């Protein structure tokens, strides 16, 4: 009898990371996959990613709607409550042997909360990280205590889980699933990229991925305006992606659209690039600017210079291709100038990515297949 593994995906960001794991689970005769899709996957505003999932050959076993129209803090909290109720309904129907969750989004935290009273063992991917500028830290560390198996990306993250009181047998340092994707995805050239996404980029662009700083959301407009001001004088084309569905995300989207309207033919936006499109953009880009974890994790595999703005990723391991700076216009301009220096670009090209070797999915599947799921897995010593 196969072991029933349910995997929760709540956003484009985690689905792109999950893909090699989903394929590895599907290919293993000892495992049965149920993919639960939720939140922004089910909204058109964030790129209709459900259609991408289906096109990849995965049929969702359940759909959990929990995204509200507003993105203010109270609405986020209400979304968490709605998600908890609807995930419970999905689990009641699917009855998985093991639940896989990833990262630190509030919808993912709700998915974990719903599983606790139902006594479903949980495996958490990418715990043990630190991002001081986001509420994600609180959610991620809470999920560590809710879950029973852990797949941190790096040894320091694994040690942090041990320091939090997790038993050593529960912690398996596996690397980043995102790097499995880097090895597997066929990249688009510039002409194919433009044809796919309706852009007209002729030279390497600045790739901009900027999200709200959720511990300082009231300053989102100020931070985003400073970024736009810094990009005003950039000679390189600008390629924006949309932010996540976080508090004040709509503020950033509005400023992106205004910037594009003021810079026709020079600035472009694609709400959702998908994994192939996003990695292709990284490979084609001159540099990357923003505050996305992809700048810390995947960008090094492309030798891409990264300007990491503000505190959103503060505490996360930053490879030598990353330049950290504050939110001020002049600070961003100075960091952008460094990305144009040949010596720094040579350094970025030579970086060995510290987040793994692209063989993470087989390591995780091996544990999911063989771990003892008797009642002992649910019995955690709490510290």
Short description:
InterPro entries: UDP-GlcNAc_Epase, UDP_GlcNAc_Epimerase_2_dom, WecB-like. The chain is of the alpha/beta class and 383 residues long.
Describe the protein in words.
It is a single chain. By secondary structure, the chain is of the alpha/beta class. It folds into two domains: 3-176 and 357-378, Glycogen Phosphorylase B (Rossmann fold); 187-349, Glycogen Phosphorylase B (Rossmann fold, 3-Layer(aba) Sandwich), CATH 3.40.50.2000. It is 43% helix and 14% strand. It contains 15 helices and twelve strands. It has helices at 12-27, 49-55, 73-94, 106-115, 136-146, 155-163, 177-184, 190-197, 220-231, 249-262, 274-284, 293-297, 329-339, 342-349, 360-370; strands at 3-9, 31-38, 62-64, 98-102, 122-125, 149-151, 206-209, 238-241, 267-270, 287-290, 306-309, 322-325. The strands form two sheets. Strands 3-2-1-4-5-6 form a six-stranded parallel β-sheet, sandwiched between helices. Strands 9-8-7-10-11-12 form a six-stranded parallel β-sheet, covered by helices on one side. β8 (238-241), α10 (249-262) and β9 (267-270) form a beta-alpha-beta unit. The longest helix is centred in the N-terminal third of the chain and has 22 residues, at 73-94. The protein is globular, with a radius of gyration of 20 Å. The model has no long low-confidence stretch (mean pLDDT 95). Pfam families: Epimerase_2 (PF02350). Residues 24-369 form the UDP-N-acetylglucosamine 2-epimerase domain.
